[in-house]
Write a structure and sequence with these properties.
This protein starts with 6 loop residues before the first strand and ends with a helix. It is built from six helices and ten strands; from the N terminus they run βββααββββαααβββα. It has a six-stranded antiparallel β-sheet, with helices on both faces. Strands 2, 3, 5 and 6 form a four-stranded mixed β-sheet that branches. A hairpin with a 6-residue loop joins β5 and β6. Helices cover about 25% and strands about 35% of the residues. The chain has about 240 residues and is of the alpha+beta class.
Length: about 240
Amino acid sequence: MTHDGVMSLALCFDAPMQSWGIRSRGILRDTMAEPTKSGVMGLLAAGLGIDRSDDEALTELARLRLAVRVDREGTMERDYHVTQNVPTTQGVGHRTVVSERYYLADALFLAVLEGDGRLLNRVAAAVERPHWRLSFGRKAYVPARPLLATGEGPVARTAEEVLAEYRWLETSPLTRARVKGQAIRTGLRTVVECPADQVGAEVRHDQPLSFAEGSRRFAYRTVRTGEVPLTDDMISAGEKLCF
């Protein structure tokens, strides 16, 4: 049932490579298996042209509730980066630093934002005509297709309703044909922001408080992992209207 005043915006996150780090430090850069709140808010802030030091604007943006549906589980890969001539901590001499950076290959997500309709309209306009370039966790990881489908925008639905009803984003004809012919299908995994007292709630340290250079700060939030059925209607809708 739709809640009065609740609006949601559905975005497609599709790219050959995505990285959604939550504990990245030093030479080890991790990634979660789905978009993080900090990563999504960073992407939206870039689209809106929010300066890194503008904590007030970030706070307003981060009030949006995030729900994610995994339309294609990515493969976790590891990349090695070698940086030469890095100064030592003592300030004398140089060294070579090898870092490990994890990323998701060929992942596909439906990211749903729930909240104030006016803010969601601004977000919708920003992802279509972004102030700064959009990327999925790292500057080189750019979208493979538009985040927002032509003619779409905020709808009067809850995030959970959108996750359960929105068309399947998969575009591979072979994958579609294989799944469509299955008598029993695997559901699509979901990760939905929820109250801390909800049964099954998990803690994530990725609620952004500040993106200021040298003083990035995050708070805790809670999410619940579940799944929604991949229905014939979702598959058919995706065939009729692809990004």
